[in-house]
Write a structure and sequence with these properties.
- By secondary structure, the chain is of the alpha+beta class.
- It has twelve helices and 14 strands.
- It has three domains: 47 residues, Uridine Diphospho-n-acetylenolpyruvylglucosamine Reductase, domain 2, CATH 3.30.43; 116 residues, 2-Layer Sandwich (Uridine Diphospho-n-acetylenolpyruvylglucosamine Reductase, domain 3); 106 residues, 2-Layer Sandwich (Enolase-like, domain 1), CATH 3.30.390.50.
- Helix 11 runs antiparallel to helix 12.
- The chain binds flavin-adenine dinucleotide (FAD).
Length: 289
């Protein structure tokens, strides 16, 4: 199918975007990489009158370190993140996760901001944002808001973004020397959305876990953390007994939705497998020299 007819504009200034959004309201849609939006238009799931292309907005581009945070502009593509030495150094979880996102052609166009705004519960970036205690920077005519990852995702494809707001960037705290990261997922074929995935982060202090973050994709109606399971791991070194306790806590805490191909029980089992793999990966990671 082809998309219904729409008007198209490519503003060079953010102020112009805000005034177009104010003028057209629900009839306008922001266009980033188009890797989700164009498919929904072609399937006629959405029929906006106007597409506002964000490609020419330099404020939404670039990767930089500002003080204690890594800032990644909303229009930075998945491939740019994959290739970035700054990301590999300061937010290595993103570097680990990015090869799981779709395929090269899609990664060359799809953007961080588009993925975060869309809030797919099976997507990689939303879970990584949660695992890293990231921030979403949203701007509108009335100024900038900084929204913590924990408060950003509100339900199935639901976010805290308000009408007239656009994501300009995400910020991630710089990785600390004691911090370890692991990402893993199971998908039917490489590049498919995850059946179950886990983005994990923890500090290791004398071999014991501290400040564990377990952020899941594909198991609920939105990306989510499992704080009770994180708490079981706090202060513990990894052993078979600790792993069994954490897996039991996870079984109580997760309520995975079935999808077209996997039952809730299968997803429960796979989540336990992901937990085991990621915890072992966290403790196996070497200290930086
Ligand atoms: C075959 C295929 C496989 C895929 N597999 C995966 C996968 O495994 N994992 C994964 O995570 N993704 C996957 N994707 C999606 C891909 O990662 C998209 O790039 C991403 O979801 C959306 O980014 P985009 O830049 O293309 O956004 P667009 O499609 O342009 O926009 C998506 C939505 O976000 C809004 N939006 C965009 N930018 C902003 C902004 N700055 N502020 C506010 N709202 C904004 C748009 O209005 C739209 O509603 C796949 C896509 C395809 C086509």
């Amino acid at each position: 199918m082809k998309a219904p007819a729409f008007s198209y504009t490519r503003p060079a200034q953010l102020a112009e975007v805000f005034s177009l959004l104010a003028q057209h309201g629900d009839e306008a849609r922001l266009l980033a990489g188009g890797q989700t939006l164009m498919a929904t238009l072609n399937m006629r799931l959405s029929e906006p009158a106007l597409l506002i292309d964000l490609q020419s907005l330099s404020e939404l581009k670039g990767i930089s370190v500002n003080g204690n945070t890594l800032r990644i502009g909303a229009m930075v593509t998945h491939s740019e993140i994959e290739a970035s030495a700054l990301v590999a150094q300061h937010a290595p979880l993103l570097t680990q996760a990015v090869p799981h996102i779709a395929h090269r052609a899609i990664r060359n166009l799809g953007t961080l901001g588009g993925s975060i705004a869309y809030g797919d519960p099976a997507a990689e970036w939303p879970a990584c944002l949660l695992a890293l205690d990231g921030m979403v920077l949203a701007r509108s005519q009335s100024g900038e808001r900084r929204i913590a990852a924990q408060d950003f995702f509100t339900g199935l494809y639901g976010t805290a973004l308000e009408a007239g707001e656009i994501i300009t960037a995400c910020e991630f705290p710089l990785a600390a020397p004691t911090q370890r990261f692991a990402f893993d997922e199971l998908a039917r074929r490489h590049g498919d959305y995850a059946v179950v995935g886990l983005a994990a982060s923890a500090h290791l202090r004398n071999g014991a876990f501290d400040q564990v973050r377990l952020a899941w994709l594909g198991v609920g109606h939105m990306p989510l953390r499992t704080p009770a399971t994180e708490q079981i791991l706090q202060g513990q070194t990894l052993s078979d007994a600790v792993l069994a306790q954490a897996q039991a806590a996870l079984r109580d805490e997760l309520e995975p939705d079935a999808d077209l191909t996997h039952s809730s029980a299968t997803k429960h089992h796979l989540a336990g497998v992901m937990l085991k793999r990621c915890l072992h990966a966290l403790v196996a990671k070497k200290d930086p020299q």
